Amino acid sequence: MHSQLKYAAKPLHWMKPLYWTLALTLAVLLHVPLQGFGQSTPSDTVMRLNEGLLEIMRAGAQAGFEGRYAAISPVLAETFDLAVLTRLTLGRHSRKLTEEQRAQFEALFTEMVSATYASRFNAYSGQRFEIVSQRDLKRNRKLVRTYLFTGSQKVALDYMLHLRDGRWRIVNVIAQGVSELSLRRSEYAAIITRDGFDGLMRKIRQYVTKLASAS
């Protein structure tokens, strides 16, 4: 019985060279690099986000804030690493919170991010995105440079991404050279120091309500 099992497994071992030959041939034919075989690239992630933003801009007032919010939320969950972004935003204060508080903050922070995008990208007038470069950063991160063209203006949007669970996800947005992560971390740290965690949650809820009522 054991000898039969060994014999049966043997052909699989000899099939490995054939498998890689076929994979290499397929990669050449499809112009797919083997290193990224089966994986999305950082630029793919940013492109997916851009598509989602164009979608809600075109939906505009007809969809309303709630419609744009509902449309962009799954796109943001797919393209951003919101769990890591939440922890980075809280910085050293994250360690002082309970598990329940961290979970509450992550849920509200995720809601705030969706509300912000639904509010900012609320109308379409010929805007377009262009991905112009991708470069390596330290700690196996990537930076994707994108331009948003709106009328005669060109806005530089740099997206910092890292690889998690086989997917490239955004962990910071740098608009015109200003890091949104750094801004929020500084602002939230000041609020926590002054008003505590509950005060920060109250401020964010008020901000989300303001965005929804103004859009």
Blueprint (SSEs and pairs):
Layout: H1 2-30, H2 42-79, H3 82-90, H4 99-120, E1 128-137, E2 141-150, E3 153-164, E4 167-175, E5 178-179, H5 180-214
Helix pairs in contact: 2-4, 3-4, 3-5, 4-5
Describe this structure in words.
The chain has 215 residues and is of the alpha+beta class. It has a domain at 42-126 and 179-214. It is built from 5 helices and 5 strands. The protein has a 5-stranded antiparallel beta sheet with strand order 1-2-3-4-5.
Count of separate DSSP helical elements: 5
Low-pLDDT stretches are: 1-37
Rg of Cα set: 22 Å
How far from one another are the termini? 72 Å
Shape, per Cα inertia axes = globular
Q: What is the number of strand segments?
A: 5
Helix share, percent: 55-70%
Percent of residues in beta strands: 15-25%
Structural class: alpha+beta
Return the string of H and E elements.
HHHHEEEEEH
Specify the biggest β-sheet: 5 strands, antiparallel
Strand order of the largest sheet: 1-2-3-4-5
Arithmetic mean of pLDDT? 87
Defining traits:
single chain; 215 residues; alpha+beta; 5-stranded antiparallel sheet; 5 helices; 62% helix; globular; disordered N terminus
